[in-house]
Amino acid sequence: MGNASRWLATTFALEALAMNGRPDRIRFLNATSWFEAIPDIYMTSGSAIPRTDLDEAAGSAAAILAGQGHSDLGQRVRGLIGNFNTPSLGVRLQAALAWLRVRYGLAILPSNAEETCRLIPTIRGSYAHGDDPLLGRHAGSVLEAALLTEAVCHLLMLAGLGFDLCPDLGTDHVLTDNLTRLKRLALARAAANTSASA
Asked: What whole-number distance in Å separates Cα of residue 27 and Cα of residue 146?
C-alpha cells in the first residue's frame, strides 16, 4: 500500500471509527469511500481491453449517435466506454470478500455477506440521487451494509499492512464488535426468512 493511499484510507478509517453506532448517510458513504481508498490487492489481474480498442469503440458509438442527431452525447459515450477496464464497486466488493475468505478463513464473515454486498452499490446510488434508503425497501440493510463495509476495510488494511488476524482483539474492539453484530444480524435474518416461509 503506497503512502498516499495509506493516508487516504487512514483518514476514512478514522472518520468511520468516530461514527461507530450511527446508521446514517454519512457513516455509510464514509465506509464506501474508505473501501475505495484502499488499494485493490484483492483483485486478480485480468486481461485489460487495449486502450486503442476502447477508443475505436467509443469513436464508432459516438459517430452512430451523431448520425441520429445525438452529437451532444459523444463525450459521455467516450467516458462510459473508457471505464470498461475499471471494475465497479460491486465487482470489487465481491472480489474483496472472496480474497478475505481465503486469507482469514471462510467463517471470518457471515454466510450472507455476499448477498449484503450486492446491495451496497444500490444503497449508495440511492443516497447519491438524494433518496433515503432508510425509508425504502432496503431500510433493514443499511446498517448491515455499513457494518460489513467497515469490517471488510478493517480486514483489508490489516492484510495490506502485513498483519495476521489476532484471534482475540478484545470484545470492545470495533472490528470484533462489527463482526459479532454482523453474525447476529445474519442469524436474525435467517430466522425471519425461515418463519416467513413456514
From this structure: 7
